[in-house]
Amino acid sequence: MLFDTHAHLNAEQFDEDRDEVIARAKENGVSTIVNVGFNRETIPTTMELAEKYDFIYAVVGWHPQDAITMKEQDLEWLEELSKHPKVVGLGEMGLDYYWDTSPRDVQAEVFRKQIRLARKLQMPIIIHDRDAHQDIIDILREEKAGEVGGIMHCFSGSYELAKMALDMNFYISFGGPLTFKNAKRPKEVAAKIPLERILIETDCPYLTPHPFRGKRNESAYVKFVAEEMAQIHGLPYEELAKITANNARRLFNIRETVL
To answer: What pTM did the predictor assign?
Structure first.
């Protein structure tokens, strides 16, 4: 019944035991996974996973760290891939002012081009935001991203930022950091987000939740995020899992619904 809305199961950290990791997710109640390909290297392997496993879907796009590598034909490639029945969104896209591996003006231009493509295709977008909160919001507004909506991936910002995203038809997704003992603000923000707009994710192999913090993350661990979110909202675990799974299916237009 769990839906991991953001994974990188094609990452090299899983090269030795990928099939076992995916089997473990199923054994721990994960019914659906969205795997994200974000550059020329990871998009093909994401597509391979989506085609191999019936419960894994794909999101494809260009990460801001890789923005400097994107060419016009890559945008055309994304448009072509969007026709695949297992591709359910575009991303992860956005701005990353922490690593600064691509010039900020290039990041912004690549971000804008992908939003425009998403609007053309009427597909949701997955947002990567690191140390660029206001610029992200400004670009989303200017490019009318609310027409397609999407996900604020692994959200760590303020409630004010979340509210601006919610007003533009976005869902707010929380990952492993929500479970950290010192995560006071994320817990406070999560408590204020309407249940119908909350999603959960792992971003595996990164951002591993407690009690495995510091080790490799995997999709099975999304259950720890669900447990924390259920406690924050005062709900039974099963109900929170059902709500977030149905939210994700609605956003990604995956018709199966958890009753």
So the answer is: 0.97
